[in-house]
## 1
Amino acid sequence: MINFSAAKFLISIANISQLPEDKGLEVAFAGRSNAGKSSVINVLTQQKNLARTSKTPGRTQLINLFALDENKRLVDLPGYGYAKVAGSLSRQWADLIDQYLTSRHCLQGVVLVMDIRHPLREIDLQMLNWANQSQLAIHLLLNKADKLNYGEQKKILLMVEQKIKLFNSTTVQLFSSHKINGLDELKQRLSDWYKD
Ligand SMILES: Nc1nc2c(ncn2[C@@H]2O[C@H](COP(=O)(O)OP(=O)(O)OP(=O)(O)O)[C@@H](O)[C@H]2O)c(=O)[nH]1
Ligand SMILES: [Mg+2]
């Protein structure tokens, strides 16, 4: 099993040209703004403030990279679809994310973080479709599971499991960054990706 708590901040980039060399293995965290991408990274690495989190959507504005060791990295992407950001700037972020996702050869898979109360929104489906065509593996996290009771969590999990049967290499699980639920399952999935 990989020692995720060894993660160290590597670099923040605003432009794709600033990325470290396309070598080794990367796993990226994507999803709508405020879904909890940065919180999940902090839980995974057992470091409260490694990735910056905020109640204000749009906190992560750059691509932040964290190193687990010399050839394994975690990548915190800015949130998709943060409406309050002015048009051109929001376009710029989307371009940055798209460029990263489409050009990065060392990308092994994407953890697509969703708020369990708003699963599979349009932007998530676009990502799933694109990843499926590009043969990129996706692991869906139904984060903030603590916001729903167990029956409601199960119902949404089943619904999403049904929907993703159409896609290859796509899995889903319940997660809570606040209650730290689902961590072993997430670690297992990432370990599989880092093995390839
Ligand atoms: N209840 C609950 N709240 C959560 C959970 N995970 C994250 N949050 C809260 O959701 C808010 C957004 O979390 P972030 O981790 O900053 O979200 P993000 O996806 O990185 O957001 P951007 O960087 O803006 O795209 C914060 O107020 C977190 O405390 C969770 O599992 N349960
Ligand atoms: Mg963030």
## 2
Amino acid sequence: MIRLEVTWAAANLILSVNGKRFRWACFSGSITEAFIVSTEETFDVIVVGAGCLGVSTAYYLQKNSPDKKILLIDRTLAAGQSNTAMSAAAVRNMFASSTNQLLTDTSIKYFEYVQNELGHNLFFEKTGYLWLLSEEQFNHESVKLWMERMKKSGINFKIYTKDELKKMLPGLNANFAGDEEAELMHLQEVSYGLFGSDCGVLDPTRLVEHYFEEFKKISHIKPRFGLEVKKLLLEADPKLDLPGEPFVWQNKKVNGIITDKGTLRADVVVLAIGAWTNQLLDPIGIDGMTKMKKRQLFVIHAEDKKELHDLLDVKGFNELGCVPFTILPSAGVYFRPQLQERGFWIGCGDTIGRAYKYIQTDEDMVPESAYYENSMYPVLSKYFPAFQGARPVNSWAGGYCYSPDRIPFVYLEYGVLVVNGASGSGIMKADALGRIADALYRGEAEAELYGGKKIPAKTLSIKDRNVEIESVII
Ligand SMILES: Cc1cc2nc3c(=O)[nH]c(=O)nc-3n(C[C@H](O)[C@H](O)[C@H](O)COP(=O)(O)OP(=O)(O)OC[C@H]3O[C@@H](n4cnc5c(N)ncnc54)[C@H](O)[C@@H]3O)c2cc1C
């Protein structure tokens, strides 16, 4: 049986068929269009993106607003499947800007709390971070400023001399005298090491799991996966229900999302979609100010190579008795130990020559074996000859979401709360960024970070931004 109801509201004819409402919008006396209204579900907040930043944000939002209906969604089939899973999963508080120092130092302390006090193993291992620096780099004013700011913030670090490094890292080639290849490649000889003992590596899947599980315990709404947002629902505020609105003279606000499976409404939409943010902000005219760059990792196993086992097992840097996350002086090449696999993950923070992209594409997820062979391997094996002949057993690629000053963005504009721009270090900032996003949502002037330190909630916004430029990006 069909139940039909007809009502007029403003300039609209509302037709209701079995409870489903259709609207004929009439302007200047003529019927112009028909579309479905008000069948959409409504939430207080929808968090789009279940990477490390989305799950952390969803958790703090729900924790501090227990009565709010908060929906977490992602287009993939589980949490933490995109760039979070592609990362080198290393965490450091050794940044040059005091903002990044604060974001990472408090997040890392929270990760330790989760692992040691809550008993949720994040496989956080304090391997330390070791920057190998040339004389020239060590004496550069940017490195002096970096060390000065770390001292001021109470970040632990230590300087090793070349002689100390040669003893501790017997596999290090610290002498390029007469080496024509090294000269051709512009490789700078190692003179110093800058070491941070509070840094390390963890398992990003376990980190995402922590926030996701804690969120699910307190949330009223089951997270939804396999749901892709196609558009943000920008509407006039208040709505006058005129065809063609919002007009320029109206205030506007995002009131929800249009997905591949229908429209969902919310007071606030959180965008934690990293390297894809521009895809949703551009069409509504918000300049997200981020760019993407492809980054790749290659896995080398020590296998039966004694020199690689020896390098993995160097003593003196940490309690684990392993080589730290190590950054070479030249070409942006770095490696981290992977103790469970008895191997290394090799990466490179290349600069000029690697294109910035506006949005991450599928092609950016494909690692380039020639990149390892021709670009990374010659540098790596020159500084650490133990890698000579070693070939990757695995590799993957993803994208960094860069902000112009390499400091993350957290801002709330027109009903959209954006959390992105982590510039290659989102995992190590995930806790602080989730707390800041929550403080902004609740209209707090300050966000309290783990351990009680405070930061103005709008510091990372676009309009009221108050940050130093970050120079230590890997
Ligand atoms: C090779 C590499 C190495 C890295 N190393 C480190 C490191 O050592 N330490 C560190 O801290 N960071 C590192 N990073 C950076 C780190 O991975 C990111 O900063 C972090 O993962 C960002 O988290 P996110 O939640 O913003 O993004 P993501 O994990 O990418 O999550 C975004 C989510 O949004 C979803 N999404 C996108 N568009 C839509 C849509 N339209 N509808 C619905 N869902 C959508 C995606 O499916 C995805 O799940 C590395 C990154 C790479 C690529």
## 3
Amino acid sequence: MHNSITVIYIISDRRSGSTLLENMLSKSNETVSVGELAMLKGHIKKEGPGEIWNWNCSCGKPVLQCDFWSKVLANIYDENFETKITWPYKSSKALSAALLPSITKNNLLKFIHTKKNIQTTKKLDEVYAAIANISNKKFIVDSSKDPMQALAVSECKNVDAKFIWLSRDLRAITYSKLKRWKVNKRSDKKPMETLTDSFYYKRICSAVLKIIGNKNTIKINYESLAADPQKELDKICKKFGLQNYAAPEFMELSNDHTIAGTPGRFERKKIAADDSWKDFYKQNKLLNVLGKVFNSL
Ligand SMILES: [Zn+2]
């Protein structure tokens, strides 16, 4: 058992490059990247998001048959197993927290202090310990994204939790979500609603970051990361005490055992900023202006 386990948790919205960052961080000799740990139970049960890859681990095997996860879960998987913090995304309390982060700390903490979430937090602690033990790595990269899950991880007793807030232009996030939903027909939300929802999500992330504090957090934006991966990785290494290493040129899986992530992660791809959203806003001027305003808030 390790005395000190460090979890590097990526907070972000969907379609913001969290899988790219997770993949980049997995290339360090000191890390083990597990993908989105919050989705572990769903992948074991084959429920919820993950149908496209049949909820398999990125190695291609079902989680309980995978070399890595079968060992991690050997002594800790039971019928009450849970790795996902649940919270009322659109409740008025969360909304007020998004708008007035300074006075609503207690409301957000209440979300993670329900009986069920306290149990889940304890289980996450056990899972991280088992991952450290099996991988023999000091740093665990968890790209679960969810800000309330991050708050729970910050309360895990056995881990030293560090956080990266990965942000991206809200117009790009909106365009990318709409495009993805069109492909998998999961939602028929309109552009304006998608943009305001993304803004709202960003405000929740901001409120959570304020509670966690600056000492253990770093803010990175997708655009800078894609333009100069080495520079942004060096910043992260310096902040969290990792040794510097060469940034990869390609996003690719190599002996990874990661849970969930962007559907495009199975292809080897050159790392470059995705600007394909820009044309969309030439035809959507009001949305473009509103997106710029939301970006600045
Ligand atoms: Zn695997």
## 4
Amino acid sequence: MDAYYFNEEHQLFRQSIRDFLKKEALPNIEQWEKEGRTPRAFWQKFGEMGYLGLNFPEKYGGLDLDFFYSVILIEEISKCFSGGFAILPMVQSYMSTPYILHHGSEALKQKYLPDAIAGKKVASIAISEPGAGSDAMNIQTKAIKSGDHYVVNGSKTFITNAYYGDFLIAVVKTDPEAGANGISLLVIDNKSEGVSMRKLNKLGWHCSDTAEINFDDVKVPAENLIGDEGMGFYYLMGGLQLERLVAAVGAFAGCESALQYSLQYMSERKAFGRSINKFQVLRHRIAQMASEIEANKYFTYHCCKLHQEGAYVVKECSMAKLLGTELANKVATECLQFFGGYGYMEDYKMARFFRDSRIGTIGGGTSEVMREIIAKMVIDGQEYDEA
Ligand SMILES: Cc1cc2nc3c(=O)[nH]c(=O)nc-3n(C[C@H](O)[C@H](O)[C@H](O)COP(=O)(O)OP(=O)(O)OC[C@H]3O[C@@H](n4cnc5c(N)ncnc54)[C@H](O)[C@@H]3O)c2cc1C
């Protein structure tokens, strides 16, 4: 079945990223989790390998490969038992910089993409605010034009990569009276005067930084506007499909690794004179989860193929994100149970998997929001067109 989606070159790429992660990341993740960040030097190495520019044009330093190379990358980084480690490149390459690539001016592309692809600069996507998460249209951060720049005031919260990062794709209101048509995307340098940040403490994702950000009369050059003023909400709706697809890939890959890890443990752990993988009740649970993971994986691959072919698939991406992240919650709970008390110990990777997977049904649009989108399409016949 995999041969339908991956050719021999894809498989060689999978092996090369596995080797790289085994040597450069896996021995260090525990330490990075304790330190609360993954060092910039690592991301530069990652960038040098080309891993941050798989789907970007060569003229900005990318490799211009097909989307299934990205699927492989996301699967492999999601199998490292650290959601905090995996999220940085996911945000960088699939959730933030694509807005510059698809809608930004040539000057913005030249200024930001080569450094982001090389791992020299780290990007964030800043949508959520203290008073507006799911209801993104209700954001209050304002960017009012004044001559050759915008003056930005407001705040954002829960922004991944921002605290140690370099620039934000910020969702702002350039015309506060115009509803969805008054929202725009601005590139804001984190070091701009008037930007202040606080690092947030989280349940999981410990080696990823998450920030609350305040903008106090921040002057942003007008040329940092991405695309047209007032189009930001529509660009965002398009970009969120890729964000959700990437989340779905990460979710099933994480489930696969949790199941593999559990099977190994269950074959070694003995109770009542036999390996615990001989208890029928546990075997049936494994069989159920293995079936659900596999069905989820191939539905997600199907969505990836549609994405690669250029289709704008809101319903399918929402379904894949909903099912994959809900399944990850279930797999995390049930697999931890197989480990008994050891599952609760930090010495076992299952504890981290349990913490880290919990964000899946919240970030990038909650499960409730996914169900709302799907319900509108399935029940009310609503359709969404790409901006
Ligand atoms: C670790 C982490 C990293 C994040 N990274 C980023 C980032 O990089 N950039 C960014 O912009 N944001 C980021 N977020 C924010 C994330 O996208 C939001 O938390 C999410 O969209 C939900 O928004 P909220 O937290 O304001 O919850 P709310 O919108 O207040 O929702 C609260 C509850 O109400 C439910 N609800 C809301 N509306 C409805 C409805 N219409 N019908 C039914 N139920 C509903 C929600 O599903 C949820 O259960 C991150 C969050 C976390 C925790």
